[in-house]
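Hi X.,

You mentioned you wanted examples for the new student's onboarding notes, showing what a folding record looks like when two proteins sit in one file. Here is a clean example. The first protein comes first, with its sequence line followed by its structure tokens.
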Amino acid sequence: MERVEPLTVGAVGCSDVAWRRTLPTFQAHDGIRLVCVAGRDPDRTRRYAERFSCAAEHGYEDLLRRDDVEAVYLSLPGALHAEWVERSLLAGKHVLVEKPYAVDPQEASRLEALAARTGLVLLENYAFVHHPMHDHVRRLVDDGAIGEVRSFSSAFTIPPKPYGDIRYHKELTGGTLLDTGVYPLRAAMLMLDADLEVHAAVMRRERERDAVLSGDALLTTPSGVAVHVEFGMEHGYRARYEIHGSEGGLFVDRVFTPPAGHPPVVTLWRQNHRQEFTLEAADQLALLVGVFHRAVRGREAIGTLGERSLRLSMLTRDVARRAVYFDV
């Protein structure tokens, strides 16, 4: 078997998701070698470096100047993503970036063009799309298990965060649309594989911090399939989608952030029939890291993932423009 050299990665940003999920996944992956981490706070950066047995850089530019870093993982506040994606690409680094990689379609289009021009991989971290459960659902739909698709609905809601949480800072692209709202929108794109048009949206906005706390949006496909998405950070936890057809429906829970050891359950119902499919557990983040590694090494193309990131950026813009806002 051909031996592929490990991909050397530098982490820009000492985020909570990097600490809990991404950097441990890098450590466990045979194809990744974490070289260094860069942050603004020297003590925090040093703590990350010690835990993950790598070097500490106290400036993002210092990390980008390192010859031993081939790729960058960005987990900065959302408002800083586009700037540092661009700087990383211009420094000759491949980029894996937390969502959103851009706050508007113009930025997204510019970054996609830069990645294409430089021949570098730019991948946004929507790990859930790589989980095999969605392929299973798609096969059931394609095989006619629920007849013709009539509607799709999805929700991603979480409990409130502490008052000072970054998600409430508008200047750092805070608010729930770009935090939780993008997930059900991306799920609709994944499962329906069609262009979506936004028709209406309603969002609750906190007056004091000017942050969107929750929202609903109604969309359609060109063939008239209705799409309803719900999102928010003032709810109980939900992460699910449902597909309804002319002869039945499908329901899947915990679709966006399932633990690596969680076996997904797909529920199929038709008239007087109900059936559950318990699937094998999968580590969706490890699968995404594998896609990134193979893409950088030229062993696998990322296909339409970049195009879909751009389309998602357009959808979130349209939801924000169409929305009626209620201040609370």
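Then the second protein repeats the pattern, sequence line and then tokens:
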Amino acid sequence: MGEKLIIHHWDTDGICSASILLKNLNGETKTVIPKIGNYFLTDEEIDRYLEYGEIYIVDIALPEDNIKQLAEHARVTIFDHHMQEPIENINHINPIAYGAAQEDFPSATWVLKEYFNEDEGLLVILGIVGDNEHKIKDNRRFYDIVQRFCRNYSIDFDDLVKATYLIDSNYKLGKKEDVERLPLIIRDMNLEDILTNREWNKNLEILEKEIGKIVNDKNLGEKRGNVIVVDVDIPYNIISTVTRRIAWNTNRDVVVVNRGFFEDRDQIYVRSSRINLTNLIDEVKRLGCNAGGKKSVVGIITSKKKTDEVIDRIVEFLEGKRW
């Protein structure tokens, strides 16, 4: 029961956050992620994790019942910056859950930086850029922080963005074991190590080709009022990137559904720059979906039989109709 466990999100922010946490924990610590695409733990995963005395949940909004199951056997701590309700008897380190503005905590790495009084180092900055990319320029305080980092280390902002793409290429190709090793590996890497990693660059070539096919296909999106709905059937976990790029290219609300990643479920990703999506999370949960996110983005997993209904409801929400 002495060994510690970190359950983290599979993207750059989650990986870098887990890496910062590893540096600040004493003793043997294992890092794991849920099955890529699952924003919940299966019964099998929970059973496997009951042997740990301390469990840290980092940058992933697991369902409350998952957390309570783990807390029956372990001391559970959450580090996050997503929209969440505080959970009784859980050490919940998430300023957003207690009313802070999301703009003040653009990444989980920043939450950990504040908590452990870390420097504004590469891991912290990669988390910020990974979760926001060029949109961080709209957040003056944190863009100034990123720019200062770039000046201090003679780094180009676009290289930071590319580094996050390279790190994320592992989860987007479904390389779960590689992602779980990354928090330990990446803390000893500098930016040049990341940018020149041959395997990750090969990953990125494959992904960019697939993403480009979707984003550049003008016939793929269906316009429903101010909303663009894109329906794809692909084996890669690139739905968040596709949604982001279409939203930025069109300046519209975007809903992307991927029917090809899971055998029995579908992924849906929603992005809006004009509507607060916080209430949408609760609404789709009431439909029996698993969902999480922030003001501008929501990720959803739904059973295939409900997919079309959920998409219709999301479009209604974005068009101002409340259920």
